[in-house]
Amino acid sequence: MPADQLTFDNPLERYSRVEPPLQHQDEPAVQDKMSPVPDLGEKTYRGTGRLRGRKALITGGDSGIGGATAIAFAREGADVAIVYRAGEEDDAAHVLTEITNAGCTGHAIVADLAHAPDCQRAVSEALDALGGLDILVSNAGKQTAVESVLDLPDEQFELTFQTNLFAFFRLVKAALPHLPAGASIIATASLEAYKPAPDRLDYAASKAAINNFAKGLAQQLAPKGIRVNVVAPGPTWTALQVSDGVSDDQMVHFDDESTYRRAGQPAEIAPAFVFLASAESSYVSGETLNVNGGMVTP
Ligand code: NAD
Ligand code: MG
């Protein structure tokens, strides 16, 4: 672990291999019960004032990539509302404490984003709690590995798309009337959008659709001065992996999936969101920023 994210080091050695022991939790998995617990940058992320005064809504902000992003945003000076699922209270409380310790307003919203009215409510609660919104991060995601297409239930296919893609669309619809020029919309796709694993058909297809939707939306919203971008992480050690996101065999070999031969930590993905939310990326829209440990993408 580096002293802070700005420290120069050998990226292959910045974090050690996770070498996860085989473990399993029902969905939604609680990050706090994982072994090892993913690194959200609690000890390392150093803010430089890049989001001072901004107001952000982050779905799946209780843990993993969304949790690390929430902490980074707060340390950059943003007020942050996070959306989590019932059952993730402990993880949400941990991130909320980090947000308020950074001296910013934090607000936690429990919602099931696969349910259309909850998307609308999450946005209106965030608007009320923060007094406005200029960053929307659609990051909540569902990933359930199924070996054969013959065993992939229609219900799962639908729920994966509801959670990953429809929620993004619905959050945008609810938030857009309130977003000023200069606002930033960021979605989370995946390496799977380009390189689908054979046992994640529904997940990978939903991630490809997120990329595509964001690129079209970026063009539609450009005249309003609203940017739309995507972060596409590679294999990152998070709660998604321990609740059937990958097979048992893939879990114990999780480090070997990336070119770096180690899994990424959520703390290493969050700076990409900071860049896309900040004014530094003013000339960046319709882009997908791949953060994947050296995996080549088209
Ligand atoms: P995570 O489990 O820590 O976060 C996912 C979050 O999604 C959960 O905390 C949960 O609050 C939320 N969520 C899921 N279903 C929901 C629902 N119905 N309603 C409300 N919230 C719901 O795992 P993560 O890996 O940090 O996932 C964050 C994003 O990163 C996801 O979109 C995931 O697909 C993407 N991603 C992860 C990896 C990886 O290797 N971990 C790689 C590429 C992309
Ligand atoms: Mg979680």
Key features of this structure:
298 residues; alpha/beta; Rossmann fold; 8 helices; 7 strands; binds nicotinamide-adenine-dinucleotide
Q: Could you explain how this protein is built, in words?
A:
The protein is an alpha/beta fold and 298 residues long. The chain has a single domain, classed as 3-Layer(aba) Sandwich (Rossmann fold). 36% of the residues lie in helices and 12% in strands. It contains eight helices and seven strands. It has a seven-stranded parallel beta sheet, sandwiched between helices. Strand 2, helix 2 and strand 3 form a beta-alpha-beta unit. Helix 1 runs parallel beside helix 2, helix 1 crosses helix 8 and helix 3 runs parallel beside helix 4. The longest helix is centred in the middle third of the chain and has 22 residues. It is globular and about 45 Å long. The mean pLDDT is 98. The structure holds nicotinamide-adenine-dinucleotide and magnesium ion (MG). The site of magnesium ion has 7 residues, from loops.
